[in-house]
Write a structure and sequence with these properties.
By secondary structure, the protein is of the alpha/beta class. Helix content is 50%, strand content 19%. The protein has two domains: 1-41; 56-197, Endonuclease Chain A (Endonuclease, Chain A, 2-Layer Sandwich), CATH 3.30.870. α2 (65-76) runs parallel beside α3.
């Protein structure tokens, strides 16, 4: 009888321990999920400080926030806009971006764009913007996959967003805005090297 009682107590303690462990893991997983969602959906995530980067000079643009930020940045451009984009597809929202580029060109902003030649929609965009005297080069070396915008040598926007309806409003996409002059200068040199390598 005493042996049965000892076994029952032992089993009870083991069960309580298992319940405690499962409950602890559940709480930890729940907290991790909340933290994950905060990071994924919050655009004001602090960037860890590094010697060469001021965290106040970096902003994160997740999903459709990219579209509104780029639209505003183009409308505020004063001197120049350089773009390398893998894919520009003509649809309602990208039409607004293209029209904003045309307005910028008409107010005297110098614009250059590099697109991938193998994307059919890029050729249509080239015709539209080319008719507005915006220089566009189509790269046929199958190497362009960038999504890069430099505005007035003050703003660099780089990340995963193509200018397509899906990328701007359906897919999960992330890009960053960088206002660090040293980084922008390097990317400007990179743009120039790609531009000069194309006919």
């Amino acid at each position: 009888m005493a042996l049965i009682l000892e076994n029952t107590v032992f089993i009870g303690v083991v069960l309580l321990l298992l319940i405690f462990i499962l409950l602890s893991n559940y709480i930890i997983l729940k907290k991790l999920k909340i933290l994950y969602n905060d990071i994924i959906h919050n655009t004001n995530v602090d960037v860890p400080e590094e010697d060469s980067i001021d965290k106040n000079r970096i902003s994160i643009l997740n999903d459709e926030k990219y579209y509104y930020h780029v639209l505003n940045a183009i409308s505020s451009a004063e001197r120049e806009i350089d773009i390398i984009m893998f894919s520009m597809y003509r649809c309602k929202k990208t039409e607004e971006l293209l029209n904003e580029l045309i307005r910028a060109r008409k107010r005297g902003v110098f614009i250059r764009i590099i697109l991938d030649k193998d994307i059919d929609s890029n050729k249509e965009v080239k015709n539209i913007l080319g008719s507005e005297k915006i220089p566009i080069k189509l790269a046929d070396d199958r190497r362009i996959h960038n999504k890069l915008i430099i505005i007035d040598k003050d703003i660099l926007i780089v990340g995963s967003h193509n200018w397509t309806d899906k990328a701007l409003f359906q897919n999960r996409e992330s890009s960053v805005v960088i206002r660090d002059k040293h980084t922008i200068k390097k990317m400007k040199r990179y743009f120039e090297s790609v531009w000069n390598s194309l006919k």
